[in-house]
């Protein structure tokens, strides 16, 4: 009987659930893309930057990676407003997750780049390639094969971390579900359902990672 009631309640709340689902996808996608772009620059600076660049980046990555995501979210929403930078809950959440993601991606990129023999960079110089050309045509194709597995894990963590944004009032999938539960009192069925939806998002990320991995694999 309870499952029959759940299906009726879920159908009645289909629009807010769908909106929350899309909101979670939007937040996660923006954080992953922005964090990956910034993290690529951070990793490049850590691996090949001069000391005046590498040291501040090292401090940035160590500080952010050692700070709980929840603290970053609250700081982005409340502390930034005290210095005149007023962000909406959505903007603050995306900023916090992007910063957290970039620190992890930066370390991933740094490790992948430093694992490539320095002779390959020197070989690129020897044949007249600029550093940017060496990076694009020599380093990235080799590093991406090492980056992908950990990138997929980091992207999945961003999806899970997005649930914390409900604390500052972002109407993501979790907050929407909690509001529905407060009206229907069907806790277990709705939490199982929302867990399945989060699984679908992360499964999609994992499939995308596998696809890119196959496309970049060295032919045997």
Summarize the structure.
With 220 residues, this protein is mainly α. It has helices at residues 2-12, 14-48, 51-65, 69-82, 89-114, 118-126, 131-161, 173-184, 187-216. The chain has one domain: MetI-like (MetI-like fold).
What does this structure look like?
The mean pLDDT is 87. This protein has helices at residues 2-12, 14-48, 51-65, 69-82, 89-114, 118-126, 131-161, 173-184, 187-216. The protein has a single domain, classed as Orthogonal Bundle (MetI-like fold). By secondary structure, it is mainly alpha-helical. The chain is built from nine helices and no strands.
Question: What does the secondary structure layout of this molecule look like, with pairings?
Answer:
Blueprint: H1 2-12, H2 14-48, H3 51-65, H4 69-82, H5 89-114, H6 118-126, H7 131-161, H8 173-184, H9 187-216
How many helices in DSSP terms?
A: 9
H/E element string? HHHHHHHHH
CATH fold-level topology: MetI-like fold
Number of strands: 0
Q: Which percent bin holds the helix content?
A: over 70%
Query: What fraction of residues sit in β-strands?
Result: under 5%
- Runs in which pLDDT lies below 50 for 5 or more consecutive residues are none
Question: Largest sheet, if any?
Answer: none
- Overall shape: it is elongated
Radius of gyration: 21 Å
Mean pLDDT: 87
Q: What CATH architecture label applies?
A: Orthogonal Bundle
Question: What distance lies between the first and last C-alpha atoms, to the nearest angstrom?
Answer: 56 Å
CATH homologous superfamily (4th level) name:
MetI-like
Q: How many domain modules?
A: 1
What is the C-level CATH assignment? Mainly Alpha
The class by helix and strand makeup works out as mainly alpha
